[in-house]
Please model this.
Amino acid sequence: MDIEFFMKDSVYLIGGRAVGKSSIGLKLAQRLGYEFLDTDILITTEQCCSVAEIVERDGWQTFRKYEKQVLEQLAGKKGCVVATGGGAILHRDVWNDLKKHGTVVWLTADLHVLRDRIAGDRKSDALRPSLTGKNVCQELEEILRERNPLYSETADCVVDTGSMSVYDAVQVIEQALNRNDDFLEPDRLVKN
Model:
């Protein structure tokens, strides 16, 4: 892929909780010389409170409304890497517009890896409260079962981050972005 052509577009990172969207997204943006945006940070900055506080105050439905508004605002933005919230994929009507202007990379990892990452992150519950009232690790399998088909349907490229460092994941994504043949195959799993 011609890098000059790609520079006009953005990269959207999708996937479940704890796959590395924010940490990988930040480093990928730095590597590409792009702006880094995180939809959760955009929402919490606008609302002047955390995701947990928004959900406690207004409920998940209101949070999803804010999330959809942010995604719609990002649809025409170029030259950025966007880390989306795990549930951003639920806004099906917005993704067609996002894909017109950007590339969607699905970051994934095995369930046990994600559970270990969540369990090891003491800030996890404060950053992203439970969707169902269950323990976040307990509800993860159920949520991924619902969302994985949507991630798969939307993604241009899939990267398994389960055994990769942030640096390795960034390299793999960058290589996929620069290889037109690999990049245009939606079902292709890119591994290190």
